[in-house]
Amino acid sequence: MGRPTRVGPCVGYIGAVTDVLRPTLFDLALDDLPTPVGGPPYRGRQLAEWLYVHGARDLNAMSSLPRAWRAELAATHDVDPFREVRRFPSWDRSVRYLFTLRDGQRTEAVYMPYEGRKTVCVSSMVGCPAGCAFCATGALGFGRNLSRGEIVAQLLAVAWHEGFGPREIRNVVLMGMGEALLNYDAALGAIRTWIDPRGLDLSPRRITLSTVGLPARIRRLAAEKLPLVLAVSLHAPDEVTRRRIIPTAHAHPLDEIVASLHDWQAQGGRRVTIEYTMLAGVNDRLEQARALAQLLVGLRVHVNLIPFNPWPDSGFAATARDGLRAFEAALTGAGVPTSIRFSRGRDTGGACGQLALRDAGGAGDAAASGVGRRAPPSGGPLA
């Protein structure tokens, strides 16, 4: 996988940088994993077992595979899609990961251990085209889509660095950098690898996919008939406020988004999680709570109120705790199941994109020392 190198308070692994980026084995569907020419088909199953059960990060470690075939695989495929992996542990036991991809761009994931389960939040893009004004990832702009393998391998890398088997991860949230439904094929390909019995054998009911609200893509996802958890980032109950904090929201009015959620549930989709980041003086008034409850009438939903996690120059402030409780009470009083979800790892840059944004802006600190700086990528359209 490369040589170990200590970077600040964490250990990363830097592999060789090549001019031509070969596909990684994680980019391949399980049915497409290679087998030796003229060799038995069970070699593909063995390869899958090394990758997804044992979490091998190096072809040389796959000792049951013929040496000559390992050499052939090494000439055509990589195992690791990351040039550098850096971990930032928090006092609450969560660990934020900053991945440097083979082209030098960066994305993030978060490991969140809970009693009896291990959860990982992964990214689907470098940056994000949605441009939410309060979001650190949005401030980065849009870099590029991640490949299927780059999404899949975030789980494998976290498991490897945390010292447990890949199949010990039983909960995944596609809630990190990016809009997963705009990177539809790669995101769904990654999910299919995770839920395949030959892959991570993960229940689709334990996978949450987050979207800013793209009606056509929500309906397309509904047609997949996968019992995923769908999380929709509304953040406001009215068009004026939503367009203020989500500049691309004009492309998809709230009524269209809500209609697509009714279609999602009519197709057998499960209860929808509504994500709502609480911004002081912007979207936290009690009349807005009542408007949100009215907007959601007829849907099976659970609202997550998310206290804003401040970052430098965001221009927003967090709603006070009393305001959070009052907003929650207004929703629950209207019959809407609601909870307040506090961020994990606030001391390590608790909101997605904060590590990469800090790196891009050069606002270094002890945890970020040693990472090369880059300019934020330019923005992109939200279709």
- Count the helices. How many? 11
CATH class wording of the largest domain: Alpha Beta
- The CATH architecture name of the largest domain reads Alpha-Beta Barrel
Distance between the termini: 37 Å
* Average pLDDT for all residues: 85
Beta-strand content: 15-25%
Tell me the number of structural domains. Answer: 2
Q: Please name the fourth-level CATH homologous superfamily of the largest domain.
A: Aldolase class I
CATH-defined fold name of the largest domain: TIM Barrel
What gross morphology would you assign?
Answer: elongated
Major sheet description: 10 strands, mixed
SSE order: EEHHEEEEEHEHEHEHEHHEHEHEH
**Which residues form runs of ≥5 with pLDDT under 50?**
1-19, 361-383
Q: How many β-strands, per DSSP? A: 14
Lateral strand order in the biggest sheet: 3-4-5-6-9-10-11-12-13-14
The computed structural class is: alpha/beta
Round the Cα radius of gyration to an integer and report it: 21 Å
Helical content stands at: 25-40%
Fold topology:
Layout: E1 3-7, E2 10-14, H1 42-52, H2 67-76, E3 82-89, E4 95-101, E5 106-114, E6 117-122, E7 125-127, H3 136-140, E8 142-145, H4 148-162, E9 171-174, H5 184-195, E10 207-211, H6 215-223, E11 229-233, H7 239-245, H8 254-266, E12 272-278, H9 286-295, E13 301-307, H10 321-333, E14 338-340, H11 354-361
Parallel strand pairs: 6-9, 9-10, 10-11, 11-12, 12-13, 13-14
Antiparallel strand pairs: 1-2, 3-4, 4-5, 5-6, 7-8
